[in-house]
Amino acid sequence: MPTTPADVDILYYQLQRRLVESGEWDRIKFTLGSKLTEIGWSDDVRHRSKEHARGMDPLSFRVLLKEFTAHTQTSLPLAVKREVMALIRHYVDQQFE
């Protein structure tokens, strides 16, 4: 079991690499995107960001991204977050059997 922060980082990057190489990462991203689109969350975020951008002078992608990153992280529906976390947990459990 990892004991130092460096060990945890190594394990994290190894797991991330396995997710990408196996194609599981793409499946999880697709599931997340589908769920968020299905409930209208993606459209809502897109609409809010467009409205906010229209009021910016000068328009700055970096500022817009910074402002909406916090909003998107806190407004992500709990049910969707739990479903994605369950998919990740399932994959991790399979890797460490």
TrEMBL record:
Transmembrane segments: none annotated. It comes from the Eukaryota. Keywords: Activator, Chromatin regulator, Cytoplasm, mRNA transport, Nucleus, Protein transport, Transcription, Transcription regulation, Translocation, Transport. Pfam families: EnY2 (PF10163). One of its GO terms (cellular component) is P-body. GO terms for molecular function: transcription coactivator activity. GO terms for biological process: chromatin organization; mRNA export from nucleus; protein transport; transcription elongation by RNA polymerase II. It is found in: Nucleus, Nucleoplasm; Cytoplasm, P-body. Its main location: nucleus. Involved in mRNA export coupled transcription activation by association with both the TREX-2 and the SAGA complexes. At the promoters, SAGA is required for recruitment of the basal transcription machinery. It influences RNA polymerase II transcriptional activity through different activities such as TBP interaction and promoter selectivity, interaction with transcription activators, and chromatin modification through histone acetylation and deubiquitination. Component of the nuclear pore complex (NPC)-associated TREX-2 complex (transcription and export complex 2), composed of at least SUS1, SAC3, THP1, SEM1, and CDC31. TREX-2 contains 2 SUS1 chains. The TREX-2 complex interacts with the nucleoporin NUP1. Component of the 1.8 MDa SAGA transcription coactivator-HAT complex. SAGA is built of 5 distinct domains with specialized functions. Within the SAGA complex, SUS1, SGF11, SGF73 and UBP8 form an additional subcomplex of SAGA called the DUB module (deubiquitination module). Interacts directly with THP1, SAC3, SGF11, and with the RNA polymerase II. Belongs to the ENY2 family. This is Transcription and mRNA export factor SUS1. It comes from Collybia nuda. The lineage of its organism: Eukaryota, Fungi, Dikarya, Basidiomycota, Agaricomycotina. The gene is SUS1.
